[in-house]
Design a protein that fits this description.
This protein is mainly alpha-helical. It is built from 5 helices and no strands. The longest helix is centred in the last third of the chain and has 24 residues.
Amino acid sequence: METKANGSMDTKSSVENGQLPDPAHWAVADVVNYFKATGFEEQANAFQDQEIDGKSLLLMTRNDVLTGLSIKLGPALKIYEYHVKPLQTQHLKSNAS
C-alpha cells in the first residue's frame, strides 16, 4: 500500500485480495477520494467538510449519514447502504480473523 506525500493512502491503486485496504487507516482525503471514485463527487465534499476520516466513517450510523452530512436523502441512502455499511462489515470481518 502506497502512502502519498500528504499522509493519505492510495485507495484507488491499493487493492488487497480483491478488497480495498482497511478504511480504519484512511485519512480524510482517502474517504473523499473513495466517494468521488464511486460516483458521489458532489457528496464527497460533505465528508471533507465534516472531517470524516476512515475511523470516523466506520463509526457512522445510518442516521449520521442521512442527517449529519446535510446531503440529499437519495444519495445519502445509497452512500450508507452500498458503501458505508459494506465497508463496516468488511472491516469487522477482517479484524475478526
